[in-house]
Amino acid sequence: MMELEGTKLGELKALVEGAVEDYLKTHKGNKAAGVRVRKAMKAVKDLAHEIRNVEVMELRKKKD
């Protein structure tokens, strides 16, 4: 299996894993943690979009 370190997908995985603790804190009523989770999810969305449009589509174009 390919190593994810140093890749955009590895960065995406780290963003999600980093948000888990704050996500759990939101369920305990910590409003500041909710802000951090929303910020992290926005970063996840943007990075996922970049991976899709730049990396995956470029690989697809090369194969065609």
Q: Any overview of this molecule?
A:
- The chain has 64 residues and is mainly alpha-helical.
- Helices cover 81% and strands 0% of the residues.
- It has helices at 8-26, 31-63.
- The radius of gyration is 15 Å and the shape is elongated.
- α1 packs antiparallel against α2.
- The chain has 2 helices and no strands.
- The two termini are 24 Å apart.
- The mean pLDDT is 91.
Q: Quick one: how many beta strands?
A: 0
Morphology call: elongated
Major sheet description? none
- Poorly predicted sequence stretches spanning 5 or more consecutive residues: none
How would you describe the oligomerization state of the chains in this entry? Answer: single chain
Short description:
The chain has helices at 8-26, 31-63. It is mostly helical and 64 residues long.
